[in-house]
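hey
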């Protein structure tokens, strides 16, 4: 399940950047955004399953923060793309997205099931 989570995240982030760099309102952007939404669901389901089996214990608080971070990353991706489709500014939202993403990836690898890079 952790591998499904990681695979879905990598594909989702690539799709997000592809969609975000496409011309606003173009067909390509709409299609990549729609596929990205399917990956949100895969990330949520895989994350929720791992969360429900792992969170009880001494690291419950950190699991809670990881869940919150993951939700915020998905919310930011969605807001950035919807605002881009409406040709509205996304500057600050990108900064927030990158902060939440860095935090969530750190927490994901920091928690016991994550690969140990640090
Ligand atoms: C786009 C948003 C998200 C990103 C970028 C992200 C990132 C990550 C990463 C990098 C890992 C480590 C994976 C590995 O080592 O193979 C991980 C693990 C995990 N994620 Fe996410 N995640 C996101 C969303 C979520 C959501 C929404 C939930 C909860 C519903 C969640 C719950 C978890 C849990 C429980 C783990 C396992 C932690 C452990 O025990 O080591 N994640 N995540």
């Amino acid at each position: 399940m952790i591998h499904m989570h990681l695979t879905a995240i990598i594909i989702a982030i690539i799709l997000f950047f592809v969609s975000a760099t496409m011309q606003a309102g173009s067909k390509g952007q709409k299609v990549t955004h729609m596929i990205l939404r399917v990956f949100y669901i895969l990330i949520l389901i895989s994350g929720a399953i791992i969360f429900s089996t792992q969170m009880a214990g001494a690291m419950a608080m950190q699991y809670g923060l990881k869940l919150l971070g993951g939700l915020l990353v998905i919310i930011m991706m969605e807001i950035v793309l919807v605002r881009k489709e409406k040709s509205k500014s996304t500057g600050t939202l990108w900064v927030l997205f990158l902060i939440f993403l860095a935090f969530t990836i750190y927490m994901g690898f920091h928690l016991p099931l994550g690969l140990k890079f640090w």
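Residues 2, 5-6, 9, 12, 43-44, 47-48, 50-51, 54, 63, 66-67, 70-71, 73-74, 101, 104-105, 108-109, 111-115 surround protoporphyrin IX containing FE (CB under 6 Å). The first helix runs from residue 2 to 21.
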